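Can you give me the bound-state structure? Components:
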Amino acid sequence: MDVELRGITKRFGSVTANRDVDLKVTSGEVLGLLGENGAGKSTLMNVLCGLYSADEGEILIDGKPVAFAGPGEAIAAGIGMVHQHFMLIPVFTVAENVVLGVEPTGRFDHLDLRRAREQVRAINDDYGLEVDPDALVENLPVGIQQRVEIIKVLFRSADVVIFDEPTAVLTPQEVEDFFNIVKGLRDDGKAIVFITHKLNEILEIADRISVLRAGEIVGGGEVGELNAAELAELMVGRPVSFDVKKTPFDPGEVLLEVEDLTVLRDNDDLAVDRIDLTVRRGEIVGIAGVQGNGQSPLIEALTGLRRVAGGTVRFKGRDITHASARDRHKMGFAHIPEDRQRTGLIPAFTIAENMVLDSYYEDRFSAGPNMRWSAVNAAAAQAAADFDVRTKSVFNTVATLSGGNQQKVIVARELSRDTEFLIAAQPTRGLDIGSIEYIHSRIVEAREEGDGVLIVSSELDEIMALSDRILVMFKGRIVAEYDGASAEKGVVGLAMAGAAA
Ligand SMILES: Nc1ncnc2c1ncn2[C@@H]1O[C@H](COP(=O)(O)OP(=O)(O)OP(=O)(O)O)[C@@H](O)[C@H]1O
Ligand SMILES: [Mg+2]
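Here's the bound-state model for the whole set.
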């Protein structure tokens, strides 16, 4: 099945998210869709999958115009989408999630879960997905949850499958498996749209590429006609540097000192196993590791969000092992959390409100029981401008921002304050290459001003580019340490896989 968008324009109030867009994807090919944060990729695909209706333009399937009154009609026409933020119900099983809305019924109209399970198994077999139909979704790792989303789409017999930043949340191993699934779908004759910010991925998986900028198609072509640097420039509108510029390493006094730290997970499993760690002024320490090796509980413990089970944490010589998150904030901690939707932002609040989420009580923003709104709004507008948050006004809710621009709000909030110590988890997840370049330069700037910086990232390239010292975390322990300037990527990668344990 071939599907074509012709002259699509989509507006939200005064924002034109898509302008006169033409796009075609045919059976048996992967179309890579690129564009910076807020370029209109998700919006365009939401039009294609019937979630939004376009203000102008038309959709054609095999050359015939169609109109979708909602996602149900698009699905019936064979178009399915795996969204940027998953839409599964955590307390339901895989099979229950898959059939949600199109439940197969048996005699007397009863839900026929047995049949649902069989169909899930059949799709599993066809594409080598290996998902247990009876597992509860909340117990599944993200990579498997994504497969549930894929099964959902295939269960509805989709011929066109849209993936919106599917690899943003996956580990390198999961990405490899995922690519094999995509290749299987393509060989099976599906038409696939693939959105990502990672150029190496697009060059590996796509047959053809289209680039959106500010809502319009600005270029594209067959894979092979374009290299990474050309694609980057098409997306951002200027050349992008992939190198991070830093002054030579000149560390100062010890800021953070972690000794014998033990942290447990919610279920009392050991997450962090007697770790020692120091971070100095003017130093960026990067923690590399495959997700799930204790990095998140470590960060939670260091920021006061998780109880410490043993050991001590000192900051400038003072014992802060049991200090609250707010106390640490007052001492000059900044924290970029890994899950922006859950802990970083309140989507229904305005951008301005989100900018002061953890500092609203400070004198500059409040006078007794009253907020100084003019000060809040001015600071928010400045931070949004500095960090290039793409929005018409800081009075819009965060929910109306594109995924990458939501991330920029957090980074702007955390780096706009006077801080001494920055803890950043996956600081550039979901960001376009232009924004990554900028955020990296701001992190380096914090270091140059004498902050200590601790970064956790599953992007090894990010750790390699930023760190003065690299620690590798494996199964709750620090298993290797490297000098940032001389470390070799292959060696660090092996340690991440447990070779040094
Ligand atoms: N529901 C909405 N209400 C108002 N504006 C919106 C809404 N959804 C998207 N927008 C705006 O439309 C523009 C395009 O957003 P979109 O989410 O399509 O970008 P994107 O290319 O997917 O970006 P990202 O890479 O960050 O996910 C942005 O300016 C965004 O703020
Ligand atoms: Mg998007």
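A couple of observations. Residues 350 and 395 are 5 Å apart (CA to CA). The first strand starts at residue 3 and ends at 12.
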